[in-house]
């Protein structure tokens, strides 16, 4: 059993529910991500992930690949 991390990241560029869906799917596709909740109003994604399997750097990379700007 590995440790779980909770991180909140700011994401620029999301303008509608479709963007939220894309970002959520991208983050959920990362191995080790347990749960993700993307909020359009706050422009935030709350991510729970296994520290042994992934990290914020990888999560930010897929957000960027999806066309959005993690801060
Ligand atoms: Cu959109």
Number of helices: 2
Uncertain segments are: none
Question: Could you give a short account of the major beta sheet?
Answer: 4 strands, antiparallel
Which class best fits the helix and strand makeup?
alpha+beta
Distance between the termini: 30 Å
Bound molecules: copper (II) ion
Estimated radius of gyration: 11 Å
What is CATH's topology name? Alpha-Beta Plaits
The topology string of helices and strands comes to EHEEHE
In short:
With 71 residues, the chain is of the alpha+beta class. It contains two helices and four strands, in the order βαββαβ.
Give a description of the structure.
- The chain is of the alpha+beta class.
- It has one domain (4-70): Alpha-Beta Plaits, CATH 3.30.70.100.
- Helices cover 31% and strands 35% of the residues.
- The protein has two helices and four strands.
- Strands 2-3-1-4 form a four-stranded antiparallel beta sheet.
- The longest helix has 12 residues, at 17-28.
- The N and C termini lie far apart (30 Å).
- 17% of the residues are buried.
- Bound molecules: copper (II) ion.
- Copper (II) ion binds next to α1.
Q: What descriptors fit this protein?
A:
single chain; 71 residues; alpha+beta; Alpha-Beta Plaits; 4 strands; binds copper (II) ion
List the helices and strands and how they pair.
Blueprint: E1 4-12, H1 17-28, E2 33-39, E3 44-50, H2 56-65, E4 69-70
Antiparallel strand pairs: 1-3, 1-4, 2-3
The protein binds copper (II) ion.
